[in-house]
Amino acid sequence: MSLSEVRKSAETRMGKSIETLKVNLSKIRTGRAHAGILDHVMVEYYGSPVPVSQVANVNLMDARTINVQVWEKNMAGPVEKAIRESDLGLNPISMGDSIRVPMPALTEERRRDLTKVVRTEGEDAKIAVRNLRRDSNDTLKKLVKDKEISEDDERRMQEEVQKLTDKHVAEIDKLVTQKEAEIMTV
User: Which HAMAP family does this one have (predicted)?
Assistant: First the structure.
């Protein structure tokens, strides 16, 4: 494995950690509605569980209401039931073949709890990035031991990996701060 491969691997894997953090943060509910909140809600469709987005159009009516327009009339009941029974604490209202999902306002205590969850997600992402740094440094030490690179190259590359780590940790902090601000706005 060459030095450029070590760097590229570390950068790619750290980028994936940030993408995972973004996905996890998008699942944390704020007071505002967004269509992605129903992405992980599964509904029974002809014997197999599928995401709501595969049996209906999910869009926003306004800042606090999601509209779910089912494609088949007979799916309105199962979709409504799936949303109600999800862990999101939502109470959908059926209106024929469309379902309105109003987003309840969050209490101050719940907002504080959610910011703790956001911080935990951020810390998990930082741990993942630091573990990737350690893996890269271990790979570099192995390359030096096998005499494939010099110690100077190893030191230079470790500094580069550290800079990558710092950059990704700063991005994680920024994402966490943005999400906390979004949650705390009333």
Answer: RRF
